[in-house]
Specification:
It is a single chain. This protein has 457 residues and is an alpha/beta fold. It folds into 2 domains: 1-39 and 275-457, Lyase, Ornithine Decarboxylase, Chain A, domain 1; 40-273, TIM Barrel (Alpha-Beta Barrel), CATH 3.20.20.10. The chain has 12 helices and 20 strands. The chain has helices spanning 19-28, 40-53, 69-78, 87-95, 112-121, 131-140, 173-183, 202-220, 243-256, 270-273, 312-316, 394-403; strands spanning 10-13, 35-39, 57-62, 81-84, 103-105, 125-128, 145-150, 157-159, 186-192, 196-198, 227-229, 263-266, 277-289, 298-303, 323-325, 333-339, 348-356, 363-366, 387-393, 413-414. Strands 1, 2, 13, 14, 15, 16, 17, 18, 19 and 20 form a 10-stranded mixed sheet that branches. It has an 8-stranded parallel sheet with strand order 5-4-3-12-11-9-7-6. It is elongated, with a radius of gyration of 24 Å. The chain starts with 9 loop residues before the first strand and ends in a 43-residue tail after the last strand. It binds pyridoxal-5'-phosphate. Pyridoxal-5'-phosphate binds at residues 62, 64-65, 83, 106, 193, 196, 231-234, 267-271. Residues 62, 64-65, 83, 106, 193, 196, 231-234, 267-271 line the site of pyridoxal-5'-phosphate.
């Protein structure tokens, strides 16, 4: 095996392990900069779960959510399709050996140069939601297979998308379908996105009903309607499930699209990425703020990743992040705030939290950080974007490597160093912890209790 990039060394483990244990191992090896532990097994488990609960719906991973190569490669190896929004995303995915038939160019407003790239790469399927886009495609790629993106918003969503994309399914979409027929363009289906982090499942039923009506209109206009794309919006955090939304989608498909001649795809982003990444950031400074007017004293913790880095998700994706101290202290939780490293006062990760007293050199761990974090992070002010430390079980790893398309880079495996066993500390009940405890660790997990006094170096 060869190393393709500095970050591509995969830690191969045997027996159960947990992201927290992995964080401890990396910290014990002397790490000072922020980093992610990436759980390849979580991605595989989520892919399998999806196939189990929605066997008819082929997932096309939305690359914009997290374009990290190992994540995309793992999904490629599993046979996943991809939703790409730009030339660079198509290049990334085709560069990993994914056939163009497994890609949908799902950006309704496309640059002409990107359409020409899609045409050259053989990516035929693309979404549209307005007339000018039809004329653009007529010029650049008249043989494209078009999917009409309609608007159907969830009642609530972490990031609504309807104000930017999607035409009205009743007043606009029928006209687009007819115009495409007049122009000699082929419409093959309908897509929608109910909003990222959708707070409602019934919306998928409403949208599928609209799509059914448009399939009828499309067929009447002479189009060969054969693709339904139910978009994204699925939950991705640990301890969330797609079972409920799968039941809604499966039932709607049986009602409105019973024929297996219609291919059904989805564009999950968050679902595959969020839970697979755990972020660890180090407390490198702290400031005690005395109590004011009978209030509580307050500690400001400064960590080495902030809103210009991974925590851009707090600003852009309106994520609610939860800090979990790596070292379990037995002291009571106290009022505190958590700040990023830049010299910008906006760089606040948690304005009001409660944590047991932390020391400089301690680490805070943040779960479910894989969605809409890394691709947006910048090294603003000279603070590096966290690196990714992938972990995978040895059996899964050898299975994945057999599935890896030949074109994929061979990731180098790195065996963890032997170190004394240490039991996982239970989460403290006083601070927010995952709803269910970490899975049990095998006794000989490679953990080292080494302590790095970073700030004193
Ligand atoms: C962002 C996006 C997705 C992914 O959405 P999630 O809510 O992360 O699943 C899917 N499709 C399109 C067109 C998108 O823009």
């Amino acid at each position: 095996m060869r190393v393709v990039e500095g970050d591509s060394r995969v830690r191969v483990t045997s027996g159960p392990w947990s992201p927290l244990a992995a964080v401890r191992e990396v910290v014990a090896s002397g790490q000072e900069d922020p980093f992610y532990v990436m759980d390849i097994g979580e991605v595989v488990a989520r892919y399998n779960h999806w196939r189990e609960v929605m066997p008819r719906v082929e997932p096309f991973y939305a690359v914009k959510c997290n374009d990290e190569k190992l994540l995309v490669s793992t999904l490629a190896a599993l046979g996943c399709g991809f939703d790409c929004a730009s030339r660079a995303e198509m290049q990334l995915v085709t560069g990993l050996g994914v056939a163009p038939e497994r890609i949908i160019f799902a950006n309704p407003a496309k640059l002409a140069s990107h359409i020409r790239y899609a045409s050259a790469a053989g990516v035929l399927t693309m979404t549209v939601d307005c007339e000018t886009e039809l004329y653009k495609i007529l010029q650049c790629m008249p043989h494209a297979e078009l999917v009409i993106r309609i608007r159907c918003d969830a009642e609530s969503a972490q990031c609504p998308l309807g104000m930017k994309f999607g035409c009205d399914p009743v007043t606009e979409a029928p006209r687009l379908i007819k115009l495409a027929a007049v122009l000699g363009l082929q419409v093959v289906g309908v897509s929608f996105h109910v909003g990222s982090g959708a707070g409602e499942t019934a919306v998928y039923a409403r949208a599928i009903r609209h799509a059914h009506e448009l399939f009828r209109l499309g067929t009447a206009a002479g189009h060969a309607m054969r693709l339904l794309d139910v978009g994204g919006g699925f939950p991705g955090n640990a301890h969330t499930s797609v079972r409920e939304v799968a039941a809604v989608i499966n039932a709607s498909l049986e009602e409105h699209f019973p024929s297996r001649d219609v291919r059904v795809i989805a564009e999950p982003g968050r679902y595959f990425a969020a839970a697979a990444y755990t972020l660890a950031a180090m407390i490198y400074a702290k400031r005690e703020v005395p109590a004011k007017e009978g209030g509580e004293p307050h500690t400001m913790y400064f960590i080495n990743d902030g809103v210009y880095g991974s925590f851009n998700c707090v600003l852009y994706d309106l994520q609610h992040v939860v800090a979990q101290p790596l070292e379990v202290e037995n002291s009571r939780p106290e009022a505190c705030s958590v700040w990023g490293p830049s010299c910008d006062a906006l760089d606040c990760v948690l304005p009001a939290a409660r944590l047991p007293a932390q020391r400089v050199g301690g680490w805070l761990v943040f779960r479910d950080m894989g969605a809409y974090t890394l691709p947006v992070a910048s090294p603003f002010n000279g603070f590096p974007v966290p690196t990714v430390r992938p972990f995978v079980d040895e059996q899964l790893w050898s299975m994945l490597q057999r599935m890896w398309p030949a074109e994929l880079p061979q990731w180098e495996a790195e065996s963890p160093p032997a170190s004394p066993p240490r039991a996982e500390s239970p989460p403290l009940s006083e601070y927010p912890a995952p709803e269910s405890p970490e899975p049990p660790l095998r006794p000989a997990s490679p953990l080292g209790p080494v302590f790095v006094e970073c700030a004193l170096k």
